[in-house]
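subagent[fold] <- orchestrator: predict structure for attached chain, return tokens only, no commentary.
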Amino acid sequence: MVSLTNYHPFFLLMLMGSCILLSGCSAPVPVPAESPGPHTGICGRSVQATVTRIMDGDTLAVRYQDGREETVRVLGIDTPETEDHGNWGNEFTGITDPSYLTEWGLKASEYTSSLAKGKIITLTADCQAEDYDQYGRLLSYVEIDGTDLGAHLVKQGYARVYTAQSFEKKTQYLSLQSDARQSKEGLWGGAEALDHVSSGPVTIKKVQYDPPGEDRANLNGEYIILASTETVDLYGWTISDNSGTLYTFRHVVITPESTITLHVGQGTPTTTDLYWNLDEPLLGNSADSVTLRDSDRTVIATFQWGS
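subagent[fold] -> orchestrator:
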């Protein structure tokens, strides 16, 4: 057999080129191998990491066992920012003072640091959530010594539920937030009371403005409950939100023994449940108001939240 080493290198290159063009054979092309991160794209998977730094109350820097580092945003929650310019808005219902929120942002950062810094934590992906946010931070549940950090921060009043995200624990977190608000835990101690005003027998007893789950997927989870101290026929009465979207009641009677629930979505009306028949969410999660008027357009009751 003739060894190819006896041929000039230029001849060998020509031979390989002819093979590729005429015979369809392919030469191997080296491709650098990149191993995916241990947490990427596998919902429900858990990995361990060590917390190396605390950015703020809901953001951590971690190092995996193989030495790689990553920034983690605790899934489903939002703590106040640590500077005033980041706290303008109505995200924390009933709290409008940015300096007050900044104070609690610093407290949240210190509290998370006391719980997590230097600890080995468990990161768990959520099947409903994105893997990473717009800033390239890993979105993950964080467990420390068997405690769900996100749930704990909400329960203690250091964080609100980040309702713009979809995640499996949203209903649980919203329940914890409701309890924290009612008991004025943490930052909620400075929240203004929701404004309920009534000038007649019919009152707006409750407004569910932030339903469990994704708002668009749960339109009937947004609802308004009316109560009354007298028997009243609501024919011709209206209810509207800040945008002016109007619902007009037909003949429906409310009594002291009953309530009437007006759902935002679609359904078959009954004597106790009515439907606005809207195709989009209506009530603002952070701030809005609803107003009940009688058939003479006199304001009977208002219910306001946020600012």
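orchestrator: received. Logging for downstream: Confidence is low (pLDDT under 50) at residues 1-38. DSSP finds four helices and 19 strands in the chain.
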